[in-house]
Amino acid sequence: DIRKIFGTNLKKYRKLRGLTQEKLAEKVNLSVPYIGAIEIGQKFPSPEKMNSLILVLNISPYLLFVEDQLSFEKTRDIINKKVDELMNEIMSAVIPSHKQLKKQRVFPDK
Fold this sequence. Notes:
This protein is mostly helical. The chain has helices spanning 2-16, 21-28, 32-39, 47-57, 72-94, 98-103. The protein is elongated, with a radius of gyration of 23 Å. 14% of the residues are buried.
């Protein structure tokens, strides 16, 4: 159902922007219950209201209609894990252990 897809994506991008339902409703001049109803697929916004939502969220319109295969949380966790792996790899390649530095007299004995 396109309403459920739209609502799920609206909620995802609202959260990505750090907005509560209250803040989003205020910015687009809609009621909080109406935003909630859109997010659970009970309501579907008019083109004018949809445009306001898209502008406030600063996203491409198609993003609200694309069925997402991964949840926001799962996507975030995958990205965070990969970033951690890459940072560990970089740190181990760039920064030798303290003992190696001490042997090279980078950190002289006191």
